[in-house]
C-alpha cells in the first residue's frame, strides 16, 4: 500500500466525504480543494471478487494471445513459464502442499477479479495502466487459458468474469484461531545444550530438520543451487520444455585409472573441488579446467602431490591428506580431469 504524507490526506478524505454527502465537514478546515468526480474515478479502480468495479468491455483468448506475446511474453515466457527470474504465471497445480510450492495465477489465486485488477493497474511492468479495458479482458482471458481454466474460444466480459471458478478458490479461509501470547520462558525451560548446531563447510547450519537432497533447503549453497536447477528442469519439463542438465562426463566414458580415483576424490578432494571452495577448480567446470589441462598431466599431478599456489588460491599438498600414496593421488587427478574435459 502507499502512504500519503501527513498533511496531504485531508483534501482526499474531504473529497471522499463530499461524495458521500457529508459536505459540511469539508468546509471548516478551509484548506485544499474538493476532489472532482474525475479525480476520484482515477483512484477508484479496484475490482472485487463479485465483479464490482469492472468497466464494460470484453476480450477473447485469441486477441489476448497476440497482445500477450508482444507485451508480456518477454518477461513471463510464451507459456507463462517465466523467463529467468521473472514471475511464473501458469502451472504449479498440486504444488501448494510442497515444501516449495509454485504459486501462480492458476495454482494459487482464488479469484479471477484479482487477475484483471492486477494486470490493469500494474502491468506491463514498464508501462503500468497503459492497457485499455478491452485489452485487459483479452490478456486476462489468455492467462486463464494458459492455466487451462478456459478454452481457446472463450471471450471474457464484464458479466462473466465473476463466475469463473479458480482452482484454488477454496484454499483460502479465515484464520479463527485465538491469539496466543508468546511468553518468555523463565523456569523449567528446554535445555539449550540439547539443541543441535552443526558446522558445515558453507558455515554454521542447524541441520536437525534439513536433509540434503530432500525437497527442503539443502545444507550448502552449492547443493541448494543444484537442487533448484533440478527443480527448474522438472518444472519446465512439465510444461513440455526440455533443458539439458549441466554436462558432466558419464562414468562409462572414464578410464580405469579415473574410476579407481573416485573413492579418493570423494574422501580427500570433494570438500574443495566439489563446490569450488577457496578457489578450487570445480569438478565439471570446463572453463576452469581447460587451461589447467593444457599444462599436461605430469604438471597437474606434481601440483596435486606437492601442493600448488595459483592465482585463485592454495592447493595443499595431496589436499591435506599426506597419508595418501602418490598413486592414489594420480587416480584422483585422472578422475577429476576426465570428469571436467
Ligand atoms: C519487464 C518485465 C515484465 C513485463 C513485460 C510484464 N511483467 Fe508482469 N510482472 C513483472 C514483475 C517484475 C512482476 C512482479 C511485480 C511485483 O511483485 O511487484 C510481475 C507480476 C505479474 C503478475 C503477478 C504474478 C504473481 O503471481 O504475483 C501478473 C499476473 C503479471 N505480471 C502479468 C503480466 C501481463 C499480463 C503482462 C503483459 C501485459 C506483463 N505482466 C508484463 C514483470 C513484467
Ligand atoms: C583445501 C582445499 C583443497 C583440497 C582439499 C584439494 N584441493 Fe586441489 N586445489 C585447490 C585449489 C584452491 C586449487 C587452485 C589453485 C589455483 O589455481 O590458484 C586446486 C587445484 C588443483 C589442481 C590443479 C592444479 C593446477 O596446476 O592448476 C589439481 C590437479 C588438484 N587441485 C588436485 C587435487 C586433488 C587430487 C585433491 C584430493 C587428493 C585436491 N586437489 C584437494 C584446493 C584444494
Main structural class: mainly alpha
Ligand names: heme C
CATH uppermost class of the largest domain: Mainly Alpha
- The tally of strands reads 6
Counting copies of identical and different chains, the oligomeric state is single chain
Question: Mind telling me which CATH architecture of the largest domain this is?
Answer: Orthogonal Bundle
Low-confidence stretches: 1-18, 206-219
Rg of Cα set: 30 Å
Going across the biggest sheet, name each strand in turn.
1-2
CATH superfamily heading of the largest domain: Cytochrome c-like domain
CATH topology of the largest domain: Cytochrome Bc1 Complex, Chain D, domain 2
The overall pLDDT, averaged over residues, is: 84
Count of spatially separate domains: 3
* Tally of helical runs: 12
The description of the largest β-sheet is: 2 strands, antiparallel
Q: Would you kindly provide a written description of the structure presented here, covering whatever features stand out?
A:
With 341 residues, the protein is mainly alpha-helical. It folds into 3 domains: 6-43, no CATH class; 58-171, Cytochrome Bc1 Complex, Chain D, domain 2 (Orthogonal Bundle); 251-339, Cytochrome Bc1 Complex, Chain D, domain 2, CATH 1.10.760.10. The protein has 12 helices and 6 strands. It has helices at residues 9-19, 23-29, 37-43, 61-71, 73-76, 112-122, 133-146, 221-238, 256-273, 286-293, 297-306, 326-339, and strands spanning 58-60, 155-157, 198-200, 203-205, 308-309, 314-315. The strands form 3 sheets. Strands 1-2 form a two-stranded antiparallel sheet. The protein starts with 8 loop residues before the first helix and ends with a helix. Residues 1-18 and 206-219 have low confidence and may be disordered. The structure holds heme C (2 copies). Residues 71-72, 74-76, 86-87, 89, 104-105, 115, 118-119, 123-126, 139, 143 line the site of one heme C (HEC).
Amino acid at each position: 500500500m502507499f502512504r500519503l504524507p501527513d498533511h496531504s490526506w485531508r483534501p482526499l478524505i474531504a473529497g471522499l466525504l463530499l461524495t458521500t454527502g457529508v459536505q459540511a465537514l469539508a468546509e471548516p478546515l478551509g484548506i485544499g480543494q474538493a476532489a472532482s468526480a474525475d479525480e476520484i474515478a482515477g483512484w477508484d479502480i479496484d475490482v472485487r471478487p463479485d465483479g464490482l468495479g469492472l468497466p464494460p468491455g470484453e476480450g477473447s483468448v485469441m486477441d489476448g494471445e497476440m497482445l500477450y506475446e508482444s507485451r508480456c511474453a518477454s518477461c513471463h515466457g510464451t507459456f507463462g513459464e517465466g523467463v529467468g527470474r521473472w514471475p511464473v504465471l501458469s502451472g504449479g497445480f498440486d504444488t501448494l502442499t510442497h515444501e516449495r510450492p509454485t504459486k501462480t495465477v492458476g495454482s494459487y489465486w482464488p479469484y479471477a477479479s484479482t487477475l484483471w485488477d492486477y494486470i490493469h493497474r500494474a502491468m506491463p511492468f514498464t508501462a503500468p495502466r497503459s492497457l485499455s479495458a478491452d485489452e485487459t479482458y483479452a490478456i486476462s482471458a489468455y492467462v486463464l487459458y494458459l492455466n487451462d481454466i478456459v478454452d481457446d474460444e472463450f471471450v471474457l466480459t464484464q458479466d462473466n468474469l465473476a463466475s469463473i471458478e479458480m482452482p484454488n478458490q477454496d484454499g483460502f479461509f479465515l484464520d479463527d484461531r485465538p491469539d496466543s501470547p508468546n511468553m518468555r520462558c523463565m523456569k523449567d525451560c528446554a535445555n539449550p545444550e540439547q539443541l543441535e548446531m552443526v558446522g558445515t563447510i558453507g558455515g554454521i547450519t542447524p541441520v536437525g530438520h534439513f536433509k540434503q537432497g530432500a525437497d527442503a533447503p539443502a545444507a550448502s549453497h552449492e547443493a541448494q543451487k543444484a537442487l533448484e536447477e533440478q527443480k527448474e528442469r522438472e518444472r519446465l519439463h512439465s510444461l513440455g520444455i526440455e533443458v539439458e542438465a549441466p554436462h558432466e562426463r558419464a562414468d562409462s566414458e572414464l578410464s580405469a585409472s579415473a574410476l579407481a580415483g573416485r573413492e579418493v576424490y570423494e574422501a580427500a578432494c570433494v570438500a574443495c573441488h566439489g563446490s569450488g571452495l577457496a578457489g578450487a577448480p570445480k569438478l565439471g567446470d570446463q572453463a576452469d579446467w581447460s587451461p589447467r589441462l593444457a599444462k599436461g598431466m605430469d604438471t597437474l599431478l606434481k601440483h596435486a602431490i606437492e601442493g600448488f599456489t595459483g592465482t585463485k588460491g592454495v592447493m595443499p599438498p595431496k589436499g591435506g591428506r599426506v597419508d595418501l600414496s602418490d598413486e592414489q593421488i594420480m587416480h584422483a587427478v585422472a578422475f577429476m580431469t576426465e570428469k571436467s574435459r
